[in-house]
Write a sequence for this structure.
């Protein structure tokens, strides 16, 4: 089987991108990072891509009058790299059907909550306000429904008494750097698929997301 090639889309610091860079460099994931694309030229993650010698593309969403035109440009740009997988890693734009249909079943996102809890923005604040005992992050396939595609894996972290938002966010980010590479490792090995609106692992429909533990073999 040929090596899985991935495009990583970012808007910000790119610590999840860094996790992929590190894991591919150390041979822990069989993945080729073909391109890193940002909608913000000042995204710090672009520097990580540069250092790792990965191709970079930058498409400013403000340069496109409509969301659909931006998405068409994204598709055209990414198609040059023919990615097997599109990894959204802190990409802060909502994608339209133009994009989702083109790469259907090959787009992963990481969302900083235990979906279906807290889709959308400001998840750490909302988890604290709701008095949650547990919070975390979810890797899921991207469909037309915002943060609503089938979930693959979740990493749970405790919410500690007196946690600030920054403390909670840092704890969630640390678990993201474990679960996202794990999900991608399974995808790249052909073990995870999107079919009939569901996620499948080793030929079985995943009714519940995997829970992160060091014992999931990838
Ligand atoms: C992560 O918390 C992720 O869940 C969310 O955006 C953040 C990206 O962080 N989608 P980074 O840019 O990878 O550091």
């Amino acid at each position: 089987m040929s090596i899985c090639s991935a495009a990583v889309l970012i808007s910000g610091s790119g610590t999840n991108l860094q996790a992929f860079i590190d894991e591919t460099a150390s041979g822990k994931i069989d993945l080729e990072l073909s391109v890193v694309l940002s909608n913000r030229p000042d995204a710090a993650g672009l520097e990580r891509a540069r250092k790792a010698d990965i191709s970079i593309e930058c498409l400013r969403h403000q340069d496109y009058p409509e969301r659909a035109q931006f998405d068409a440009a994204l598709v055209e740009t990414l198609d040059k790299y023919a990615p097997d997988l599109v990894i959204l890693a802190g990409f802060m734009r909502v994608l339209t059907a133009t994009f989702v249909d083109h790469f259907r079943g090959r787009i992963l996102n990481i969302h900083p909550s235990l979906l279906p809890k807290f889709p959308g923005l400001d998840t750490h604040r909302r988890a604290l306000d709701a008095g949650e005992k547990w919070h975390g992050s979810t890797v899921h396939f991207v469909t037309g429904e915002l943060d609503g595609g089938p979930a693959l894996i979740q990493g749970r972290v405790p919410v500690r008494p007196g946690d600030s938002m920054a403390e909670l966010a840092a704890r969630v980010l640390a678990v993201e750097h474990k679960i996202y590479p794990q999900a991608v490792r399974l995808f790249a090995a052909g073990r995870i698929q999107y079919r009939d609106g569901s996620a499948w692992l080793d030929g079985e429909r995943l009714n519940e997301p995997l829970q992160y533990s060091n014992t999931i073999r990838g």
In short: Residues 58 and 151 are 29 Å apart (CA to CA). The first strand starts at residue 4 and ends at 10.
